[in-house]
Amino acid sequence: MLVGRRGVVASAISSVVILGVIVAVFWLAPGGATVRYFFFNPHLMWQAFVGNPRKGLSSVGWGLVTNLWMFVVSEVLVLFFGLVIAWVRLSQSPVLYPFRVLATMYTDVFRGVPMLLVIFMVGFGLPELSIGFLSTQSPAVYGCTALTITYSAYVAEVYRAGVFSVPHGQLLAARSLGLTHTATMRRVILPQAVRTVIPPLLNDLISLQKDTALVSVLGVIEATRAAQIYGSTVFNFSGYTVAAILFLLLTIPMTRFTDHLVARDRTRRLAGV
Amino acid sequence: MEVVLELTDVVKRFGDNEVLSGVSLQLHRHEVVCLIGASGSGKSTLLRCANLLETIDAGSISLFGQSLEDERIDPDLVRRHIGMVFQSFNLFPHLSVLDNILIGPLHALKRRSGEARDDAMALLDRIGLRDRALDYPDRLSGGQQQRVAIVRSLAMRPSLLLLDEVTSALDPTLVGEVLDLLSDLAHQGTTMLIATHEMNFARDVAQQVVYLDAGVLVEQGTPDEIFTNPKHESTRNFLERVR
Questions:
Q1: Whole-model pTM?
Q2: CA-CA distance, B226 to A84, in Å (whole number)?
Q3: Domain membership of residue A241 as a residue range
Q4: What's the complex ipTM?
Q5: Residues B153, A191: C-beta atoms closer than 8 Å
Q6: Residue A192 lies in a domain
Q7: Picking from A21-25, A81-85, A176-180, B159-163, which range would have the lowest pLDDT averaged per residue?
Q8: Chain A window 155-184: which residues touch B at a Cβ cutoff of 8 Å?
């Protein structure tokens, strides 16, 4: 064998040592037992996960379903509205000038205002307006609205950066063929921009997935809120650990997938393909 | 002979930098004009002004006697009559070779796809790349890519072809195949305005050679006049340096 085993042995040893140190710190710390009881109690973790309606205990597992559908709904809306905003900002027609200004203001404002404040404003503001169906929605719907508003601003900028990443020669070549601005965007620039944009886009979506937890401030009983209710009922935080694990189960596949795409893109570029 | 393109006292500035200082030029149907001059002499800018990728600051450009400064001119319609080929090919990497050629006829000219496809395949046949129609550009050599780019602009059936140093980015061994294709086009009477550093090629195919220096048209004449008996000091110097 030409492949040495020293590297494998060394990394195995260092992994075991480091893991051992971390476990030991938690195990041997003066308050280790307390922490284990309050955060990692297997029985209570299971109870928090499934919940118990008869005892008035919310289920963190069921709560996560709420996070999931809020994420899916906002994700679709964000990908759509982000594209619309980016399209407007990249437009050239003089007629669209006021819309360009509005779109620029929009991205400036909503990338600057904290997510939590937008959720408060939409969730408590819209009902106060008393205008028909706009003011009679459920808190979860307002939550999705707020998430969509903020994340569309981020995603619009990601799309725009993607468009700028396409070499200028592509635009020149397309316009030289007599393609209009719209046809050039649709058939030449955007298809190439989308490819470079997928990793940063997934990054924002991972973030969106976690931020669905913030909607709990409107009274929506999603995973973190259910964990909180469970915790204050039985005076134990193991529910939070369950919520954290569930969020990880959602986001880790997506982060791994994003990293995989980034690595593939890098290999391709290094190969000069 | 009918005048295809006419530039009159064209001035183009980028900020304080005057890139073209009053250039006048006529291009007749079936004529090949070669632009020579050092890098930065304004050759590329001149070509880009001719198909309205750049707007000019003074002077006028007309195509078939119609002024392009006219407010009612639609640049997209003008560009459908003028093909342009670039130094770096600029093929669309996400489209197959065939789709690269078809994009103009289908989405600018709105031709029917069956006919446009037949024409595109005929063009690929002509450059011997019919069997590469479904490949992506990155699978082709530089010379093949540039020939596809030339054919892509021919698919629009342009009245005039602008070529911007189309062999400068190529491996020396691949320059020949591209120049051969251009020579063929010249012999078939394609009207072309060619910015080039290939002096032998210019001597062979051009009816007129134009020497530009720092945005000024220094000298213009037949290849014989320019290459054998250049009148101006700067033309002589330039030709000696590239020889």
A1: 0.78
A2: 55
A3: 56-271
A4: 0.93
A5: no
A6: yes
A7: A21-25
A8: 167, 169-170, 172-180, 183
